Amino acid sequence: MTTYAMDSQGKFIPATQRPDGTWRKPRRVRDGYVPQEEVPLYESKGKLFAQKPTLPPGLPPEMAQKAKEKREKEQRIKQQREAAEANRRSAHNPVPGLLILHDDKNQQRAKPVNSKPKKKAAELPDVLLEQKQKEEQKSTRQQSQEQKNSKIMQQQKRVEEITKEVDDFHLGASSSEDHVELSKKLRKLRKKIREIDAIEERLRSSEASRLDKDQIEKAKRKPEILKEIEELEKILPK
Known about the structure:
The protein is mainly alpha-helical and 238 residues long. It has a domain at 145-235. The chain is built from 5 helices and 5 strands; from the N terminus they run βββααββααα. The strands form 2 sheets. Strands 1-2-3 form a 3-stranded antiparallel beta sheet, with no helix packed on it. A two-stranded antiparallel sheet has the order 4-5. The longest helix is centred in the C-terminal third of the chain and has 79 residues, at 126-204.
């Protein structure tokens, strides 16, 4: 930190010696001047806000510390109670899955949880027992075979449905393509009729001498083209 001195004229920085032995001149300091090394660093508003205490306004730090210690104490007591309860349960139930029952003479008996009394199976002669087992096996095989047959029938039915859908799709696509081709052909024939009409108009005028042989042959095919147009119009929808 810079050391200042005072004289009759005001504040000044006294002369200092450099490491090489030379001296710096004393410098006069104006009122309110702050040296560069003593200017405080700039801190953004976010950093200043983060440095603010997290305590509620008006709450002394001592009270906050006491509340924190109280919460930690209550948490330790709760953990101790839970540990004691777990130890007590393990002492009364040493084997997992078993319930300890007490009889009238205070004697302990271990009984499995959710245990059910077993019924004594009825004894049958060996012949009847073998016959019963064979019938059960036969019934099981029949059920398995029926399930397989049912699955096979479902698969066949599904294959038939898919085949029908594919055939219908191809049939629709084929008919659509034929319709498009016939429409194109009808447009071409109608275009030829318009050209023939133009040729006939020239034949009736004074430009008949300018027509070539191909144009005259095209005009002669007019009845044939009209017949084709009529047939196509019957086939195609309006």
